[in-house]
Amino acid sequence: MPRTRRTGASVAVLIAAGAFALAGCASSSGTHETHPATASAEVVAPVIVDLNDVDGTTVEVKVGNVIDLTGDDETYADWGAEIEDESIVSFTPGRDDGSAQFNPGLNALAVGETEVALDNTSTDQTVTFTVKVVDND
Known about the structure:
The chain is an alpha+beta fold and 137 residues long. The chain has 2 helices and 10 strands, in the order ααββββββββββ. The protein has a single domain, classed as Immunoglobulin-like (Sandwich), CATH 2.60.40. The protein has helices at residues 3-23, 36-40; strands at 47-50, 58-62, 66-70, 79-83, 89-92, 95-96, 101-102, 105-108, 112-120, 126-134. Strand 9 and strand 10 (126-134) form a beta hairpin.
């Protein structure tokens, strides 16, 4: 499956989340009110990392953001992860829900640094890298 479809699905989710956040600005009379917190809220794009280039590197991500692991259009659902400190990042496996395909990814949970080893059960490929989660400042 082309990478565009999975990336498109990720972008669609981000747009839907933004639209949902803005929907709260409408009153029942049909008029729209702007709330300062909603007007300034930004949808943050994920950090995109190619599985073919990440081995031996350090990936920096802000707490609360995600790392989208791309570059494997065939066996994206066969990746697993060993995370040195699971309080810093968590792993989300790739999947196909029948209507869209989703890349594997990492969720930045807390400020810190941890080693991540990803293994593909179909190809026996292994990549190891460091994830550095930083504050949102």
